[in-house]
Amino acid sequence: MKPALHIVLFLALAACVGGRASAPPPVDNVTVTSSNFSDSDPTDWPGRSPDRYPVHGIDLSRFQTGVNWPEARANGVNFAYIKATEGGDLFDPMFTDHWRGAGAAGVKRGAYHFFYHCRSAAEQARWFIKHVPRTNGALPPVLDLEWTPTSPTCTLRRDGATIRAEARIFLDMLERHYGQRPVIYTTVDFYEDTQLWQLDGVEFWLRSVADHPHGVYDGKDWRFWQYTSTGLIPGIEGRVDINVFAGSKAAWAAWLAARTL
Closest Cα to residue 95, out of 124, 65, 70, 117? Predict the structure, then answer.
């Protein structure tokens, strides 16, 4: 990347995420490997295909028990968001193994929390902080917000204003602890029902498995796009969620410079 281009991209991204005055950590040797993925239930994309984006990655949890991280990295897994916690009392039993394996293989890694609507945001933030280390070079944390109609213990559907207020509490607590504003992952029904776009200073990770997010989310900005839950990747046993970063390789390097811990 040319130095002038790097500076422009970095300043633009820094402004986008709040314009913090402190200098971000340097990111060395940001290497993007091309994806060698397939899909057990592929989509015939009506618009822009995820293949047009060069930076692909995954999210995973306890359901992915067999991961050869060096092989997955060599086949295009450039980043991984790993489930850490849920609610205020669940810790994913595979988090530690996945966290260590991804880091050792050079995969950019971050942790996510699945929100439970029957516990307070503050309690859940404290639970996440208790289990997820502050690790240099980690991606910003993620708050996973979805409805839970099949939950055996909590199917509560609160109004949008309450949801957004609880989200702010969670985001603020994690930002104070980790020094980075978390990203929000969500689905189209939750996004629309709660009007999540009203949250200021948030980058979104959007699920859209049948069309490009711009068509599904009415042109709203996004940072990550989850485009399938049935991905097949060498080095990973079974199906896995696959995502893309919204930008070029140069934009990825600049975003990492601005947004890693």
Answer: 65
What's the Cα-to-Cα distance from 149 to each of 17, 93, 152, 165, 184, rounded to whole Å?
32, 24, 9, 21, 20
> What is the distance between the alpha carbons of residues 60 and 45, in angstroms, rounded to a whole number?
24
Pairing of strands 204-207, 183-186: parallel
Instruction: Write out the H or E segment, with its range, that includes residue 227.
Output: strand 224-232
Does 51 qualify as catalytic in the annotation? no
Q: Under a CB-based contact definition with an 8 Å cutoff, are residues 260 and 24 in contact?
A: yes
Please confirm, yes or no, whether 41 is among the known catalytic residues: no
Question: Quick one: residue 195, left, alpha or beta (phi over 0 = left, psi -120 to 50 = alpha)?
Answer: left
CA dist., res. 96 & res. 110, Å (int)? 12
- Of 59, 86, 144, 241, which one is the catalytic site residue? 59
Q: Look-up: residue for tokens 């978390």? A: 182
Higher pLDDT, residue 10 or 111: 111
Going along the chain from its start, the domains and CATH numbers come out as 33-248 (3.20.20.80)
Average pLDDT over residues 180-203: 97
Residue pair 165/198 in contact by the 8 Å Cβ criterion: no
Q: Is 198 exposed, middle or buried (0-12, 13-18, 19+ CB in 10 A)?
A: exposed
Q: Please pick, among 71, 123, 146, 193, the residue that the annotation labels catalytic.
A: 146
Q: Is 225 exposed, middle or buried (0-12, 13-18, 19+ CB in 10 A)?
A: buried
Stated pTM of the model? 0.89
